[in-house]
Amino acid sequence: MRVLQVVQHLGLGGAEQVVIDLARGLALEGCEVEIASVYEPGERASDLSGDGICVHTVGKRRGPDPQALASLVRLMRRLRPEVVHTHTYTSSVYGRVAATLARVPVVVHTEHAVGAPDWHYGAAGLLLPPLRWVTACTVVFSEYGARQIVRRKRARPGRVAVIPNGVPVYDESAAPCGRDELRRSLGVRADQLLVLSTGGLRQQKRFDRLVDAAGMVPECWTDRLLFAIAGTGPLRDSLRDQIATCGARVLLLGPRDDIRRLTRASDIYLCTSEWESMPLSALEAMADGLPVVGVDIPGLEELLADGRGILTPAQPAAIARALAALAGSEAARRAIAEKAKEYVRAEHSVGRMVERHAELYRELLAAECDSCGNLAP
Q1: How deeply is 61 buried, as exposed, middle or buried, from its count of CB atoms within 10 A (0-12, 13-18, 19+)?
Q2: Tens digits of residue pLDDT in 321-342
Q3: pLDDT digit string (tens) for 25-50?
Q4: Quick one: residue 196, left, alpha or beta (phi over 0 = left, psi -120 to 50 = alpha)?
Q5: Can you tell me the distance from the alpha carbon of 166 to that of 356, in angstroms, rounded to the nearest whole number?
Q6: How many folded domains does the chain comprise?
Q7: 68-89 CB burial, b ≥16 within 10 A, e <16
Q8: I need a labelling partner for 202 at 20 to 30 A (CA). Which of 121, 158, 234, 310 fits?
Q9: 309: domain range?
């Protein structure tokens, strides 16, 4: 089975990580997998060089680019994929139109930003509903996501598949190590708990809530809770100013290539986002045995249900209270972490995610073959 994954670029985001994990897993399943990067290759493209997975760069320019569309059509006609699978906004538009023009048998799209408000895409969002008619199936991460994209007319009823995100699940012996050394390098004392959050420093992630909550923890925890944010982005300077103004104990770690080591060196993971579909960062924390506190949004509601985490209102004072309560009970942290780890390892491994996608591709190709056979004279 020949599969072409189409993505904006292979940068440091969650969607890009899903594409990389999916491509590697499908290749191990025996599929011929290649990737088309609509813009530049991205920082992670070189990660695939040792896997025999070719990354093609389309080189789209800013704004509408007919030449990029034509290049993508030519690429698809040359590679002749049986399945084109698009991810993220720009690549979903260019990839699905190109696949239609190139007469690719099956077109699949993953909606990574199903939790985003309507204004997130601006006027360009008007292009998404018509594309549902050329899409064999739209993949989402949760039942909430399935309801949302049908309601917003971005997918046809009956043409939606729920395939939860997956993350690498390590054996304890093979897991990233060096917890004590890393904590010392961050200045974490033995009597302190480290609260970690990761992601791009942009409005969606609402790290301003984290900083405000850090300044509102009860006095008895002020010196015993240390907060850290790993990531970079346009709001770094404003967050730094906010931290200085309120005097909160928050470390801005910048971009890191050792997130799983950071997770294992931490005690609590915190997600304060305005919206999420199904955050890989929270899944990784759960897989590594870290209790997660998250604001009560749909993308976290299913993930942290049934005692697998703590949901809290989005107000900083409520976040601070939830953190203090969890910090004060080692037994609660351990119980939540164990339940979350067991759940993620059973339902959200990369292997399980790849299996579900491969099965979906096969079903769609079989249905396409049957349809062509029925239309034959």
Answers
A1: exposed
A2: 999 999 999 999 999 999 999 9
A3: 999 989 999 999 999 888 888 888 78
A4: beta
A5: 11
A6: 2
A7: bbebbbebbeebebbbbbbbbb
A8: 310
A9: 172-347
> Which of 53-57, 76-80, 126-130 has the weakest average pLDDT?
126-130
Place of tokens 């993971």: 269
In the predicted model, is pLDDT for residue 175 greater than 70? Answer: no
Looking at the structure, do residues 162 and 238 belong to the same domain, yes or no? no
Distance from C-alpha of 197 to C-alpha of 262, rounded to nearest angstrom = 10
Distance, in Å, from the CA atom of 42 to the CA atom of 131, rounded to the nearest integer, reads: 26
3 state DSSP class of 19: helix
**194 shares a domain with 104:** no
Q: Is the pTM of this model over 0.70?
A: yes
Residue 309 and residue 344: Cα distance in Å, rounded? 12
Choose among 13, 73, 64, 5: nearest CA to 42.
Answer: 13
* 137 shares its domain with 225: no
Letter for the amino acid at 247? G
Residue 173 has pLDDT above 60, yes or no: no
Residue with tokens 């942009």: 202
- Per-residue pLDDT tens digits for 231-260: 999 999 999 999 999 888 999 999 998 898
- Check residue 371 and give its pLDDT: 67
Pair 69, 92: CB distance under 8 Å: no
Helix (H) or strand (E) holding 184: helix 179-186
Q: Does 309 lie in the same domain as 190?
A: yes
